[in-house]
Amino acid sequence: MAETPAAVVAADVVPRTRSNGYPPDLARRVAGREKQALGDVFGLVNFGVNLTTLAPGAASSMRHRHARQDEFVYVLQGHPVLVTDAGETTLGPGMCAGFRAGGGNAHCLVNRSALPVVLLEVGDRSRGDVTTYPDDDLAGEMGDDGKWRYSRKDGTPL
User: What is the mean pLDDT of residues 84-106?
Assistant: First the structure.
């Protein structure tokens, strides 16, 4: 078993290669999103940390809310648009946003600029979490194995 490093250069972490899990009709919105799973490098199990880059036109996710997981984002570079139930807010470097589990405020970030956006995303890994997507025919549930499973809102598997 490989030894867990004490520290790494975040930018040197190999980007995640797994599929985003979204169906093809929605996956195109996150095309240009790259995640470097920093928490995984250290074997973290209670929360995840991603260094996420959004190319121009890319979204962080579909607009969603979590039943059990808290989320936090910190903007390192660029000017993403935070889309929430309250409307849209342009963020800049040094700004952050947080979303309490079960809080009900659906959210996502969209890069509408011509330059890359770089974010630090932090979220817990609560098993049994459920996500709702108010703008899309999508539902998500985290299994006991820590993997997300997506379906249509009527329960049809993807």
Answer: 95
